[in-house]
Structures are given as C-alpha cells and as structure tokens.
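Weekly puzzle thread! Below is a chain. First person to post its structure in token form gets bragging rights.
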Amino acid sequence: MSDTQQAPNAASDVEMSQYVADRQRVDEEKLKKDDEIIQQFGDYTYGWHDSDAAGEAAKRGIDEQVVRDISADKGEPQWMLDMRLRGFKAFLEKPMPDWGVDLSGFNADDFKYYVKPIDKQAKTWEELPDDIRSTYDRLGIPEAEKSRLISGVAATYESDFIYNTIQQDLADQGVIFVDTDTAVREYPDLVKKYFGTVVSPEDNKFGALNTAAWSGGSFVYVPKGVHVDIPLQAYFRINTPAMGQFERTLIIADEGSYVHYVEGCTAPIWSEDSLHAAIVEIIVEKHARVRYTTVQNWSNNVYNLVTQRAYVREGGTMEWVDGNIGSKATMKYPACILAEPYAKAETMSLGFAGKGQYQDTGAKMIHLAPHTSSTIVAKSISRGGGRSAYRGLVKIVDGAEGSSNSTVCDALLIHRLVRQSDFAR
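Winning reply:
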C-alpha cells in the first residue's frame, strides 16, 4: 500500500477514535445526570409531622360500632349507613388477597379509622391552625391557587377536608367541587344515583373497607358542555402514626364536558405503618372527557391499596395518568369499563420502587361494546432492592367487534438485587 493510501486511513482512524471518545464522554455525562435524577426519587423530603392531639386520642381498630359512629358523627342518611354496613360485612367475609404485595404483616386493627383534625372546614388558609397551614405552604398548594395554576383546591388532612375552594366562574356554570361528605348533605339525589355504582361495596376486600370507613374525598360534577380548562387539585396528607385514610372520590362528567383532576399525597415517616385505602369512581357520559392524574408519594411506611375505576359511555374518553413513587407497598390498577360504542381509554402508569418498596401497579381495560379502543403504557424503575410489577387485564367480550387495545410495558432495573415482574392477561 502506498503512503498516499495510508494517510487517509490514518486520518479516518483518528477521527473515529475522537468520535468514540466524545461519544463515551457524552454517555458518561448523561448517565451521571440520569443517576442524579433517579437518586432524587429515593430521597424523601416530605417526612415532617405536625402536632397530633386529635390523632393521639383516636381509637384503633374497626368494628360495627366504629362504622355506625362515623356515620352518626357525619349526620348521614339511613341509605348511606346501610351502604357502610354492607361494606363492613363484605370486608369481614372476603379473604385477604394472596397475590400482589406481601400483606402477611397487615392487621386491620392496627390502624386509626377516624381522626378529625379541626372542628369545621376553613374558608381561607389563614383560618387553619399554624402547623397545618405551614405544611400546605411547604407543599406549595396555596401558592398554586394564588397563581391560578389550578381552578379549585381541596385539601384533606387525616380523615377530613380542611379547605375547599373553586373559581367563581366555574361555580356560575354549575360546576360542583366539594368534599364527598358535603355532597351527601347538599346533593343527596345526585350522590345516591351514582355512589357505589362503579365500585360496589362487595367489589374487593379493601374497597369494602373503604365503603365501611370512608371519610373525605372529592365530589365533582361538570354539567353538559362545560369545559374546566384549568385542573382541579386535591391534596391528601396523613399526619398521625398508624393512620387509616379512606377518602371516597366521585366524579361525574356530563355529556360533552371536560375536566382534569389532579391529586397528590404525602405522609410523615413513622416507625408504625399507616394505611391508605381509597376508592375513585368516575362516570364519563356521552362524548365527555376526563383526565385523572395521580402523583402518589406516600412515605415508605404506608400501605397504598386503592381501587380506581371509570365507566365510559358512547364516544367518551377516559385518561389515567398514574404516578407511584412512594409508599411501602402499592396495589393500584386504574380500570376503565368501555360500556358503549366508540368509547376510548388511555392509561399511563409510571412507577418507582426504591429500597423497601414494592410497586404492584398496572391497568385494566374492559371492552363491552363495539368499536371501543384502549391504550396502556406502563414504565417502571427499580433500584436499591426495590421491586416493581406490572399487572394488567384487557378483556374484549363477544360482540365487541372492531375493538382494539395496545399495551406497552418497559422496566429499568438499576441494581442486581431488584426485581421486575409482569402479569398480563
């Protein structure tokens, strides 16, 4: 080979070596940045707690008398007490789940079922006790309201709503955004029509427990054709050790309407476990659209055992954006019942499992009518010995011609001791 032939080859080798070095440097910098981002998920910064006089006085355990006392304290109608007693009976009869997260150490009598932090709901943030107000200031909720980043705020602390507001222009259009306890008193016919129709008292063990002991949660009604363009936000905070929080959220989007509901949650770090067992029921009427976004960031001593389900009518659209980065153990599978033709549903499930965490999450799509469609995208990260699992169900019944589903599941494992599982059918 001549010298003139060797020179271009040598120059090409130098260029390739430089390219590889530059690419390696870029990859190393990217990996370092990615690791810094992932590390932030493992650093829990919401673990402070407030004074706890109400929690210290609360009774542990649940029996029929506790259920009756909760209902009596709220002044509920007989039909709601009957619903609670149905739930309690189902809770006693149903076995503990033998799949999903490890519940071998779970004892329902370890938890406090009803803690009232204040005597009445505040109309302004300034009316709240100083330590509770300080907590929500640190969480940034009042600032988001003042900046009009949200169109309504609901703050739940322990078992009760402590603050609630909605922009006047939405109230003038007939939008209702109150706590579910208030809705039972002020909109009884509307609540009775829908409560327990998507998730019955006998649906599952922890849904039954919620039906028996529920307190707080959001009630949203959006009238026909009304669009709530700026999200409504709810924030749930546990403060008491061994607290059981059982909010009940019911959202009704009437024909042609739209609403985006965002919820977040945190809790102090205690040596005792706490329990969060919520129910979310959503009714999406014809050609309506609902987006429900969750940023679940409980401390790593909280069991997070939640039932979320939507019933979608003709041409309606339901969107779940489900983020789970906290808790000791999570079992949560947002579900959609596509009940009428051309109903659509999407679920984006994002999970992070760090040291001592087990995220068992996913989605369910039930196609009951022709020309319905659904999409599931599930992504998870496990590090530091954490475990994540995708658990999904897609069912297209006979007669649901022209229906379709797309499911994508990705997992990133950043440790040799982490685990990822997939359970799909």
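Puzzle host: Confirmed. Bonus trivia for everyone else. Residues 21 and 195 are 62 Å apart (CA to CA).
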